[in-house]
Design a protein that fits this description.
The complex is a heterodimer. By secondary structure, chain A is an alpha/beta fold. Chain A contains 14 helices and 17 strands. In chain A, strands 1, 2, 3, 4, 5, 6, 15, 16 and 17 form a 9-stranded mixed beta sheet that branches. An 8-stranded mixed beta sheet of chain A has the order 7-8-9-10-11-12-13-14, sandwiched between helices. Helices cover 21% and strands 19% of the residues of chain B.
Chain lengths: 431, 485
């Protein structure tokens, strides 16, 4: 990245200097000049545009802003600017090491709680996963609970990847529930039971809503769910909170569409490996999907129809598609959603839609901020070294609320310590 | 996380068919092989490797010559050749150069705009042993019944109809090693396969390739057996387990060597000891699942103690910390581009891992350990290359390609016959739609021994396994014609 100020000193050095300079700055004015800007909003794509940031907001985006006074001017030639990436499904801040139970707060066992489980208070903004994913261009994420016993996992929330203690942006954003093979396993061995549990929960949540006082006083029949769980499902019933349901098999997806229609709820299907087989029905029901593009192996009987062009076919049918990081890489590599999106584009998804699937579509589906670049909006963006979906590109500058974020993380720290590994004690004294 | 795999695996190696024999190697097994038929070779010692017991029955189809014309060629020897022709004939690379004459009868691939590389080699896969779909009865990769199961052979679990083989082929993978999992200190033998359809695993076996022995450091064995209240329950328990086994194997080997020289009553055969003795005499290559720098250093000392060579540390998330030691000991490291954090020993990840190991002059490579990752090893290599460039190293595609071709061939002991585009080598070749170090690049044609085994533009040359017939659609295949797998 070229930086038009006195800090210029070669690519590597300039980046570090930039960070040193920028991190302390408040209310900074930043001008990005002559970049390809994918606003994903009303202004579309500017092939050679300027973008001005002031006081945390985007002030202007235009073909040519001319000479503007700015503390930081970035030469955007050859660079691409996009909104920051948003992970549609993660456990960021709820996990540190997968196989270290003490570092995981996403799921509970042997508890009565289901839909009411809300892990937001367990969120750890100082998790090592956050700076690493941020350096990969991820600025926001949906954080979801998981479940090992009940089909209802509980409440998901949204975060910004600033690493600040106040970085939770949306609480009780979405309810997570399992259907398909895993849901069947949790429900006792059959999809039919998982479906029954899901439907009963909605039914009884409605019953609870209609008869709250009597139920609370104990003057009602015994219900199958705790009152806390039924309370937690009220926003889902009212259509205020989306229900994120895992399902891969085409027939499972259709059952969920019927259920959603009956109860007038707003589902998001996560998985949807065979979504392409029912793409028209998904589109008609206006139900969006979160797909793992790289999950093209028929590694379960519910995924026999898995294929690389699933996202492209879904989009073509009119379904709103969000793309997650590769399932096998987990939350630690959530930012790899962009590699997945690149593959989706290689297999037929239009390029801009590919970018949208890891930014704007995620924001739209979950109803959160971010995902587009527009004057007046938050300056939450990434300056990429090139094509944002290309594996050889990388984030050169990440802004959240107009502030340049540190791109240093354990990966870069360890790299710099061991760049030329050798015998001796020296490494122990390197920062 | 399911312990089956991420958690489980490991490799190491030894060579055979070695062009380059690094390391001290003793051995002597004159493997006929390397492209020839398997035989019970072993001119001057007992036959511990027993390559002849389940001999390869792989036979490439007859194929007319192929001329790939005017492509950008990454040879896998460090060169990038522009506008270059490649002639494949009788299963071998016949010529590389300018203006090669088109064969009278044969296939001409117009290479303008295309890139050509050696076939990708994945040193670490479980296809067939953990096939798709994954169900209770398909978990055939980890004999989790004893910390030492050196007597089991991964090939005996391979379900050749695993539909994931064809997916890997579409990703340009022509050769892969199937390894047992990493639950055990000694997981068993690995097997190197050509990525071709087979009715039996023997139909897929890479002729002459040496066997691997899967070993595992760290968390997995101690968790599995510690959880059962038996040794090992600690890393130090792991090490005691390795050393005792090598002591036993050395005695077994000596007993058989004495018999070989002096005659008399033949000692009893022991399958477990046979595999370990095959390592000690250099016929079987050690593939060692090992994440931590400390543990790699210890394993290399154990190899010195018992006078064997470790081929490769697999997963090797901390290989960069000991890259100089790897170079000194001629041990390869097989790594991911950026996978981390699923367990503590995978916590100290740096994306520059492969590049740092490579720059320290050790033998570095990408590997998958994943039915998804194996389809995208070119992308994974690209990320590792860029991480190296960002670390300040001068690494270009012509060099980085060796991380997915020549170096894994070396780790498997087959680098004298495949892994590079050189005259006389097996015609294992991928024609890419563009620069393979791009997310948009696709393998368009994949040749194995000169035979067009995959053609993206011709469904008739796209293999599909028995499993895919009549699935989802009784009259069709798993995916409709033209479906992108």
């Amino acid at each position: 990245m070229g930086i038009s100020n006195s800090l210029r000193a070669g690519v590597q050095a300039s980046l570090f200097c930039l960070l040193g300079f920028a991190l302390g700055a408040q209310g900074q004015t930043i001008l990005i000049k002559d970049a390809r800007i994918l606003t994903l909003g009303d202004q579309g794509t500017l092939e050679n545009g300027d973008l001005l940031v002031r006081d945390g907001k985007i002030l202007q985006i235009a073909e040519e802003l001319g000479d503007v006074a700015a503390e930081l001017i970035i030469d955007g030639r050859g660079k691409v600017v996009t909104p920051g990436l948003i992970a549609p499904s993660s456990e960021l801040g709820l996990t540190e090491i997968g196989a270290a139970a003490s570092t995981n707060d996403g799921a509970v066992v042997e508890q009565s709680i289901g839909a009411a489980f809300d892990p937001v208070v367990a969120f750890n903004a100082r998790s090592t996963l956050i700076p690493f994913n941020r350096a990969g261009g991820l600025t926001r994420a949906i954080v979801l609970p998981a479940s090992e016993e009940k089909i209802f996992a509980g409440q998901g929330f949204a975060i910004k990847l600033t690493g600040e203690f106040d970085s939770v942006t949306d609480r009780q954003l979405v309810q997570k529930v399992y259907f398909g093979e895993y849901g069947a396993q949790l429900a006792g061995g059959s999809r039919a039971m998982a479906f029954t549990q899901l439907e009963s929960a909605l039914q009884q949540a409605k019953e609870y809503s209609d008869n709250r006082d009597q139920i609370r006083r104990g003057q009602w029949r015994e219900l199958d769910f705790t009152l806390d769980d039924l309370e937690a499902l009220q926003p889902v019933l009212r259509g205020e909170q989306r229900l994120l349901v895992s399902a891969d098999r085409a027939s499972d997806i259709l059952q969920l569409l019927t259920l959603a229609d009956t109860y007038q709820i707003r589902p998001i299907i996560i998985g949807a490996a065979e979504g392409w087989m029912v793409a028209d029905q998904l589109a008609k029901a206006r139900v969006p999907v979160v797909v793992d593009v790289l999950g093209n192996t028929p590694d379960a009987f519910e995924k026999l129809g898995a294929r690389m062009d699933n996202a492209a076919l879904l989009h073509k049918a009119g379904v709103t598609v969000a793309i997650s990081g590769p399932g096998y890489a987990g939350s630690h590599n959530s930012y790899l959603s962009r590699q997945a999106a690149g593959n989706a584009v290689a297999y037929g998804l239009p390029f801009e839609e590919g970018v949208r699937s890891v930014t704007a579509n995620v924001a739209e589906i979950f109803g959160i901020d971010g995902g587009v670049l527009a004057p007046g909006g938050a300056a939450e963006l990434v300056v990429w070294s090139g094509d944002p979906l290309e594996v050889t590109s990388f984030a050169e500058l990440v802004l959240i609320d107009g502030k340049p974020q540190s791109l240093v993380n354990r990966s870069t720290r360890l790299r710099d310590r061991y760049l030329h590994p050798k015998a001796g004690t020296g490494h122990g004294y390197k920062n | 996380m399911r312990l089956s795999w991420k958690v489980v695996k490991s490799p190491q190696r030894r060579w055979h068919c070695p062009l380059v024999m690094w390391g001290a190697l003793m051995a002597s097994v004159v493997l006929t092989a390397c492209g020839g038929e398997d035989k019970e070779t072993h001119s001057d010692g007992p036959d511990f490797a027993r390559l002849g017991d389940f001999p390869s029955t792989y036979q490439p189809d007859e194929a007319a010559p192929v001329l790939i014309r005017g492509a950008t060629v990454l040879t896998g020897t460090g060169e990038k050749l522009l506008n270059t022709d490649l002639l494949l004939k009788e299963g071998k690379i016949a010529a590389i150069g300018d203006n090669l004459k088109a064969p009278k009868k044969g296939l001409v691939v117009e290479g303008a705009g295309k890139w050509v590389t050696p076939g990708i080699i994945d040193v670490h896969s479980h296809l067939g042993d953990y096939p798709a779909p994954s169900i209770e009865s398909s978990q055939d990769g980890n004999e989790m019944t004893s910390p030492n199961t050196a007597q089991v052979w991964a090939e005996h679990s391979v379900w050749t109809q695993d539909p994931q083989f064809a997916l890997a082929l579409a990703g340009g993978v022509t050769t892969l090693q199937i390894l047992p999992g990493s639950a055990n200190l000694f997981g068993g033998r690995g097997i190197t396969l050509k990525n071709v359809p087979g009715r039996s695993v023997q139909d897929m076996k890479f002729p002459g390739a040496p066997y691997g022995l899967k070993m595992a450091c760290g968390e997995n064995p101690k968790r599995v057996y510690g959880g059962k209240g038996s040794l090992p329950s600690t890393r130090m328990g792991n090490v005691a387990g390795y050393r005792q086994a090598w002591i036993d194997a050395a005695a077994y080997k000596e007993k058989w060597e004495n018999y070989h020289i002096n005659g008399g009553d033949a000692p009893d055969r022991d399958l477990q000891m046979e595999t370990l003795a095959g390592v000690l005499n250099g016929d079987i290559l050690v593939h060692n699942h090992c994440y931590r720098g400390e543990e790699m250093a210890i394993m290399m000392d154990i190899a010195r103690e018992f006078d064997f060579q470790i081929s490769t540390f697999h997963h090797a998330v901390e290989a960069y910390k000991v890259a100089d030691l790897l170079a000194k000991n001629n041990v390869c490291a097989a790594m991911w581009a950026d996978w981390w954090g699923f367990k503590h020993e995978a916590f100290d990840m740096t994306e520059a891992n492969i590049a740092i190991v490579d720059q320290a002059k050790a033998c570095a490579m990408i590997h998958s350990d994943s039915a998804v990752g194996i389809q995208h090893l070119n992308e994974e290599t690209a990320k590792a290359m860029v991480a190296g460039q960002r670390a300040g190293f001068e690494i270009q595609p012509r060099h980085a390609v060796t991380w997915m071709t020549r170096n894994p061939a070396r780790a498997l002991g087959i680098d004298d016959v495949t892994g590079t585009l050189e005259k006389g080598k097996m015609a294992d070749v991928v024609v890419w739609s563009s620069n393979p170090f791009s997310v948009y690049a696709k393998a368009e044609q994949v040749f194995i021994d000169g035979v067009l085994m995959y053609d993206r533009n011709n469904p008739a040359r796209q293999p599909h396994s028995d499993f895919e017939l009549g699935i989802l659609d009784a009259d069709g295949e798993r995916l409709p014609e033209g479906g992108e797998r």
